[in-house]
């Protein structure tokens, strides 16, 4: 899945989703904020359960620089 990290609120871009190396996201065209999300599951530190990289939730906080 390719998406704009500034417009979508997916777990792969959330600072509560435990992926310290950001292995689930790959830059496609970072100048225009397009990133590819690899399908995987990791722990959400807010919900304390595994969440898919493409999932969404209300506790989203971006880990990307503004």
3D structure, described in words:
- With 66 residues, this protein is an all-beta fold.
- It has one domain.
- It contains no helices and five strands.
- It has strands spanning 2-4, 25-29, 34-37, 41-44, 49-52.
- Strands 1-3-2 form a three-stranded antiparallel β-sheet, with no helix packed on it.
- The relative contact order is 0.34.
- The mean pLDDT is 91.
Describe the structure in brief.
The chain has 66 residues and is mainly β. The chain has strands at residues 2-4, 25-29, 34-37, 41-44, 49-52.
- In DSSP terms (H or I, runs of 4 or more residues), the helix count works out at 0
Spans of 5+ residues with little confidence (pLDDT < 50)? none
Quickly count the domains: 1
Secondary-structure element order, N to C: EEEEE
Beta-strand percent range: 25-35%
Record keyword descriptors for this entry:
0% helix; three-stranded antiparallel sheet; two-stranded antiparallel ribbon; mainly beta; 66 residues; globular
Compile the SSE list and pairings:
Blueprint: E1 2-4, E2 25-29, E3 34-37, E4 41-44, E5 49-52
Antiparallel strand pairs: 1-3, 2-3, 4-5
